[in-house]
Amino acid sequence: MYTSIPKGLTDLTLAIEKGTNAVISNRYNPFYYHGALPQFYLWVLFLSGLLLFAYYIPTIDNAYFSANLVNAWTSVDYITDKLPMGAVIRGIHRYAGDAMVITIVLHALRVWVTDRYRQYRWIQWVSGIVLLLMVLFVGQTGYYLVWDERSLVLTRMTVSAFDAVPFIGPGLKTWFLNGTAITNLTLSNFLFIHIGLSFTLLFGLWVHYVRMTRPVITPPPAINYMLMAILLVVVFAYPITSGKMADINSAPTSFDIDWFFLFPYWLMAKVDLTTYWVLMVGATVGLCLVPLPSLYKAANPIEAAEVVLSKCTGCSLCSKDCPYQAIEMVPAPAGSRFKLLATVKPYRCSGCGVCVGACAFDAIDLPNLLDTDVTAQIRAMAEAKPN
Amino acid sequence: MSEQKVITLICERACDLDSVCNDKGEVKEVDGLHVVKLPCSGMIQPLMIEAAMKAGAAGVIVTGCQIGDCYYREGNRMIRERLLGQRPPGLKKTVDRQRVLALWLSRPQKDRFLSEAKEFVAFVRQLPTPPPAAAKPAAK
Amino acid sequence: MGKTIDIVLVVVGAVACLALTGLMPWAELGMTGAPDAWPDWLRWVNENLGLPLPNYDQVASLSTGWSEYLKKAGAESRFGDYAYSLVMGLAMIAAAIGIAAIGREEAEEKTVLPVKK
After folding, report:
1. Considering the domain boundaries, does residue A158 fall inside one?
2. Is residue B38 part of a domain?
3. C46 falls within a domain
């Protein structure tokens, strides 16, 4: 059950959720939609990003400081100061990004505390870590796109970090810069990564969802209103501003840090690059290995459900009801009375028994808990006379 | 009849009854209440409920996790829909619906379970004795 | 719609949502209700069809207060847009509270099976 997690942490989480249920009921408890919250912010990011994209110009030219200068920084400045609702859309985009990182981390924490990441759920966990890394990198490219002094510092730090990677370092650097120095091509590369990687998130999400039947990805409208409203209020309370326009001939050294996305840069500034990469790669690999079976000596091995082929009628109820896509209907052999038969994919099986509950023909069983045994136990209890 | 039993079919992660149960699955605080544990409330087959009634139980309490928080994602929704007739397989028509209660409680909600269970056991024990399973359902 | 507190929350939520929505035109015009800020077509309707335009004099203090806050926080222009965002956000919170107040009554910790007659 929860044996691998400190009991106090689980108790605390359950107590908080019990309190939340008492106030707003399980129907609106955001803890019960913890995966759907980042998904909502992803839609907000796509929409607000699309609007910003209509006015954003990915160039770095600032050789001519004239009134007609047009580059990334001036386009963002135009959006923020001149375009109706431009500042609000920019703010929504930026804060939805931060909110997405927050909700992803809370989601991961709850998944870990409630023990929903091991065994048959390992793909969800590992794909989740990969998705988090992608989200962080997408957000970082967002900071480069503004092309203010912070962007210049971040770009240069990233270039030196890539350069320090053994073997592929120079290649990574050339890829990142789209050349050998920072040019207009670099900024359009950043835009391509920002948008392209965001859409790749959808593919990653497919992997994240594929082993779940009917994944819960849409919170009820009342929660959506709250999620959106939080962004709108924060946009007013903390208006977004750009730093000074980046000048490639200058060498700015400091910047305001957005902890949600830019914490790797804080680390980069504190330690040497080799240590940085060791820590980052080590942390990523470590997080991906959290579901490693050898870490859980106390875990119960799952005995997958087994179909009794002689009784299966191919009604598909078990396949439809299975929460983990572990039962597939296959064509019945020739000469069978029925068209389909159920088969279990044992590595996906969670041992929950929902299929057993769904079967009206006693044609599927959990080997370590036969439903006939359960029914016999029930009968014995119901008949027992008190002594 | 005070010997009538009420069977609770509960999942491992719903309200924690270990502290109030003895080895035989009897709940000390509520007379006649017995507990059968399953990995998930979704594993409950309606025929298990029918078997309990046929064997003489006064009622059955189905207990799962909070709706929205099933450890196996959907089990509690599945059994809930089966009980309400919204999903096959369903309860036979001959089962007296008054004698079935479903509770969706998280692990810390043991006290809520005990209070609901006490009320339910008292209620079903004072219902007129169910007719034998072969007879037609009694008119209300 | 059962418990009293839920009815109260629904009413308060609805009223707050409507009131805040009423502030949205004011915010969109730049936190002003002055007639020359209104768009031409609306002024035409007001003058020729007699549609009354709301008077936003009572919220003039909000206009100065919020503008000062925004300036200090670093915003440079179009303060009305930020105000619109705030007002819309608060309206959505009020709506969410009202909706949740009704919706939570349907949530289940206990399912009693309906008895067929």
Report:
1. yes
2. yes
3. yes
Rounded to whole angstroms, how far apart are CA atoms A88 and A106? 26
Q: What is the maximal distance between C-alpha atoms in chain B?
A: 42
What residues in B contact C110, CB-CB < 8 Å?
101-104, 116
Q: Would you state the pLDDT for residue A302?
A: 87
| Amino acid in the structure at residue A364 | I
* Per-residue pLDDT, B140: 47
- Are residues A129 and A237 part of one domain? yes
* Token representation of residue A325: 């896509």
Q: Which residues of B touch A1 (CB under 8 A)?
A: 12-13
Structural domains in chain B (count): 1
For residue B9, give the DSSP letter.
Answer: E
Task: Quote the pLDDT of residue A301.
Answer: 82
At A218, which CATH number? 1.20.810.10
Q: What is the pLDDT of residues A334-345, one digit of tens each?
A: 888 999 999 999
Partner-chain residue, chosen from B97, B102, B116, that has the shortest CB–CB distance to C114: B97
For residue A200, give every residue at least 6 positions away whose Cβ sits within 8 Å of its Cβ, in sequence order, or none.
Answer: A134
Closest among A229, A281, C112 to B62, alpha carbons compared: C112
Tally the domains of chain A.
2
| A223 and A156 both lie in a single domain | yes
DSSP helix/strand/coil, A210: coil
pLDDT digits (tens, 9 = 90+) for C57-71: 888 899 999 999 999
Question: CA-to-CA distance for A218 and A224, rounded, in angstroms?
Answer: 9
- Which of C109, C112, C114 is facing B104, going by the closest CB pair? C109
* Domain limits for position A320: 306-383
Instruction: Give the CA-trace dihedral at A115, A118, A123, A125, to 10 degrees.
Output: 40
- Tell me which residue of C33, C40, C31 sits closest to C84, measured CA to CA: C31
Type of residue numbered A92: I
Of A235, A236, A239, the CB nearest to C74: A239
Residue C97: inside a domain: yes
B40-56 in b/e form (b: 16+ CB < 10 A) is bbbbbbbbbbbbbbbbb
In a domain, A270, yes or no: yes
Does B116 fall in a domain? no
Residue A319 maps to which CATH number?
3.30.70.3270
**Interface membership of A298 toward B (CB under 8 Å):** no
Task: Please tell me the predicted confidence (pLDDT) of residue C106.
Answer: 82
**Using the beta-carbon criterion (under 8 Å), do C89 and A222 form an inter-chain contact?**
no
| Residues of chain B found within 8 Å of residue C113, distances taken between Cβ atoms | 83-84, 91, 97-98, 100-102
Note whether residue A300 is domain-resident. no
A1 found inside a domain: no
Domain-located, residue B93: yes
Position C36 scores a pLDDT of 84
H helical segments located in C1-117: 4-28, 40-49, 60-73, 79-103
Is the pLDDT assigned to residue C2 strictly greater than 90? no
Domain assignment present for residue B78? The answer is yes
- In chain C, the number of structural domains is 1
Q: What is the pLDDT of residue A64?
A: 54
ipTM value, please give it: 0.92
Which pLDDT score, from 0 to 100, does residue A211 have?
A: 95
Burial class (CB in 10 A: 0-12, 13-18, 19+), A153: buried
pLDDT of residue A3: 55
Tokens of A316: 């598909």
C116 assigned to some structural domain: no
Q: Mark the ranges of chain A whose per-residue pLDDT is less than 70.
A: 1-5, 63-67, 297-299, 384-387
Domain assignment of residue C92, given as a range:
4-106
The mean pLDDT value for B88-95 works out to 91
